TrEMBL record:
Gene3D superfamilies: 1.20.58.1040. Residues 13-96 form the X8 domain. It comes from Rhynchospora pubera. This is Carbohydrate-binding X8 domain superfamily protein. The keyword Signal applies. InterPro entries: X8, X8_dom_prot. One of its GO terms (cellular component) is plasmodesma. Transmembrane segments: none annotated. Keywords: Disulfide bond, Signal.
Length: 97
């Protein structure tokens, strides 16, 4: 997927949690991200609540923050727990922006 920025075609990217990231750090990422962006998608009953685990839910929040902050590589660092991907991580009812 590509998008236009200033008339140029740019590869769309998303930020997700590294699968082997420390659970405590992922909890911190969720807390930080939710202080900056709307985290209703990961609330119980939200479109991204399932699967109910830290990697999945942190990935949603980290990507919401990454996109809102401008999508720079530094916006996906999260203390070394973030990973930029060009593969859309959306699944089921959970649609990543």
């Amino acid at each position: 997927m590509t998008r236009l920025i200033n008339g140029e075609s740019v590869q769309k990217t998303w930020c997700v949690a590294k699968p082997n990231a420390d659970e405590t750090k992922l909890k911190d990422n969720i807390e930080f991200g939710c202080s900056k962006v709307n985290c209703s998608p990961i609330d119980r009953g939200g479109s991204c609540y399932e699967p109910d685990n830290y990697v999945a839910q942190a990935s949603v929040v980290m990507n919401l923050y990454y996109q809102a902050a401008g999508g720079g590589s530094w916006d996906c660092d999260f203390g070394g727990t973030g990973l930029i991907t060009t593969t859309d991580p959306s699944y089921g009812t959970c649609h990543y922006v």
